[in-house]
Design goal:
four-stranded parallel β-sheet; eleven-stranded mixed β-sheet; 493 residues; alpha/beta
């Protein structure tokens, strides 16, 4: 596109894109003043993003009218980058391909809902393909932010309650005393796990097995005892997968926010995982227990990979990580949720119908798959492999190399030959003293329960709505009532 800088009638610069005027040919600054004067917002935005304002006459005026709002700019043509110093931040399509991804990486869900996007109308007409794409990306980012706020508002309260239960019942908290100096196998429950099981069993003593919660039943059924299981989900159904750990001595890496039965918390050795945000982090710090840092992720397999990258020193193998719907069962059997679901099968709602329907529920898998692709890890000399038969592979995980089970077997045998003494005893879990942790946590809750930041954590959607309409007393009263009830419920544990 040909951008031409001209002189307007009043002597100011004006611009045209392929002879389409981007500013007035008479008085560009006066045009910008009228534009800003006519701006009205339903709420006072924390952030305003101006979409290709070209020579940016309107920027200074917007800052004067909305002094408490940050001002950003989206550029469709880099020739206008010279005016970016007026703005607090900028995005240029010639340097980035996805505005949606950029928004999600740079702003929280709450912040996204506080942004007002303003189109400079002449540019919208001149850059039609770009503005059409941009509008779709903005809509997608805002819809995702709203969905996440709804999800968080539901789960944040569960996470808080689960965290209190965690410290109430945990009796044998662990910490990992050193690095795990061997190859690590992370076991997920995808159907492709079936073909990796024989290789894992045959070479079991020569690597560290980290088993995700949904694969526990399958591992134990096939005679594979994990070195460590992992669960992070805060929902009730996550606890169903952990049933097989009752009365076992297999340690469990459990997110402080995760759902877990009183029996397992009381009797099993637990490696506490804590994220770097939220109320659970505050409670963990108050407990004085040694916590294992973990990274919040949409799928436990992502959290497990990051755990292995930090605590394991050699190659990492991902088994059962299909990230795609397969024919028939979507999990390698046995699986606790399948066992539960099968109880409701009957003549009218058959197992075949249920399994067929499950083959098309792939939207979340696509999100999880993209996380792996978009977050390559710098492991220096180490590598990450996904073990899967070519016949079952329906996608690629980008930087993660796919190998078949026979290649997996060959790699392990080579490692065994190189180090005959590579046994599982080279890492150590140590049990911590836990006598005062719960009392400290309860005292902390009592002393900090009136912090506004806690209410914002627990009611992110409501607080976003309240920021748009501060006079909504009904919503304020609703938040206070629900919060008071939650705190009472926790203190009654």
């Amino acid at each position: 596109m040909n951008i031409e800088i001209r002189k307007a009638k009043n002597g100011e610069d004006t611009a045209a894109a392929d002879n389409m005027l981007l500013h007035s040919s008479y008085a560009p600054s006066r045009e910008a003043e009228r534009f800003v004067q006519n701006l009205t917002f339903p709420f006072l935005p924390e952030i305003i993003i101006l979409i290709e304002p070209a020579l940016s006459y309107s920027a200074k005026i917007i800052k004067e009218k909305f002094p408490h709002s940050k001002l950003g700019v989206v550029r469709f043509n880099s020739i206008f980058n010279q005016y970016n110093s007026i703005f607090d931040f900028s995005f240029n399509y010639s340097e980035n391909t996805s505005f949606e991804n950029w928004l999600e990486k740079n702003f929280t869900e709450e912040a996204l809902m506080q942004i007002m996007f303003i189109e400079w109308e002449p540019s919208a007409k001149a850059f039609t393909p770009q503005i059409t794409k941009l509008r779709k990306e903005i809509t997608a980012a805002l819809e995702r932010a709203k969905t996440l706020l709804i999800t968080r508002q539901y789960f944040e309260k569960k996470w808080f309650y689960n965290s209190a239960l965690f410290f109430r019942w945990i009796k044998h908290p662990l910490y990992l005393n050193n690095k795990i100096n061997k190859d690590t196998v992370i076991i997920s429950s995808g159907p492709s796990l079936k073909n990796a099981i024989p290789v894992i069993k045959q070479n079991r003593n020569h690597f560290f097995v980290l088993c995700l919660s949904s694969a526990i039943s399958a591992c134990l059924k096939n005679g594979i005892t994990p070195n460590l299981c992992m669960s992070t989900d805060g929902g009730f159904w996550a606890g169903e997968h952990l049933k097989k750990l009752n009365n076992s001595d297999i340690p469990l890496a459990l997110a402080v926010e995760g759902h877990c039965s009183k029996n397992i918390l009381s009797h099993n050795n637990i490696l506490p995982l804590v994220y770097d945000d939220g109320i659970s982090l505050e409670l963990s710090n108050a407990s004085d227990l040694k916590m294992t840092h973990s990274v919040r992720n949409g799928t436990v397999s992502g959290t497990a990979l990051l755990f292995a990258a930090e605590h394991c020193t050699k190659d990492i193998f991902l088994c059962g990580l299909d990230m795609a719907c397969q024919k028939g069962f979507q999990h390698f059997q046995p699986n606790e949720l399948e066992n539960n679901n099968s109880l409701f099968d009957n003549r009218l709602r058959t197992k075949e119908k249920r399994l067929t329907a499950s083959q098309f529920s792939s939207s979340s898998l696509e999100v999880y798959k993209n996380w792996f692709i978009q977050n390559p890890l710098d492991l220096k000399n180490r590598k990450v492999y996904r073990v899967i038969e070519n016949s079952q592979k329906k996608n690629s995980l980008g930087w993660i190399k796919d190998i078949e089970p026979k290649e997996f077997d060959e790699h392990l045998k080579n490692q065994i030959n190189q180090n005959e003494n590579n046994k599982t005893e080279d890492f150590e879990f140590i049990i911590q003293d836990n006598k005062t942790a719960f009392a400290k946590v309860i005292d902390y809750i009592k002393n900090n329960s009136q912090k506004d930041v806690w209410k914002k954590y627990l009611f992110p959607l409501d607080y976003t709505a309240l920021s748009h309409n501060p006079d909504n007393t009904a919503l304020s009263e609703k938040i206070e009532k629900e919060y008071t009830m939650l705190i009472k419920k926790i203190l009654d544990i």
